[in-house]
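Fold Annotation — chain and its backbone

Fields — amino acid sequence, structure tokens

___
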Amino acid sequence: MRRQPVRYFVSAAVCVLVNNILLIVGDGLHAPYVPLLAATSWVSGTIGYGLHSRLTFRQRLTWGGYARFLGGIALAFPIALGLLAALISLAGLAMWIAAPVATVIMLAYNYLNARFATLRRPLPV
């Protein structure tokens, strides 16, 4: 349990890099934001589930866990889309700045989602 935060950071860093690279490249190719965010969420979510299950929480991969993980990402989709829209359209930030900022803002939610999806026992209170 002591090394779990380190393992989470390593897994999350890979997901952050993949997610941000896809968003920035997609924006450079003028991809519409909704399908772009959906595609990056699926790709980084799939990678993230595998990493968090096996590396962070040391659990086996299951279809149920994968469904819970992607379900959690789907629930956060409107928040992530709203953040990107606000940062790009309202604040005038470029995608290469907005994507990492939105990612940092979503970090706590993503940790709780990863934990819920991969562990069968509830969070301690």
